[in-house]
Amino acid sequence: xxxxxxxxxxxxxxxxxxxxxLATSTVCATASPFDxxxxxxxxPPAPPAPTYF
Length: 53
Fold this sequence. Notes:
- The protein contains two helices and no strands.
- By secondary structure, it is mainly alpha-helical.
């Protein structure tokens, strides 16, 4: 939490804590843009190597 406080430039740790509480609920409620991307078809496995006797 202290690292986030420094990165955001807050003087008070309580300000950072309040911001994180609000930001967490907002971030959790936001859909990821990656979920909107089409999923590629799985690559089929390579055929087994021929066996020689």
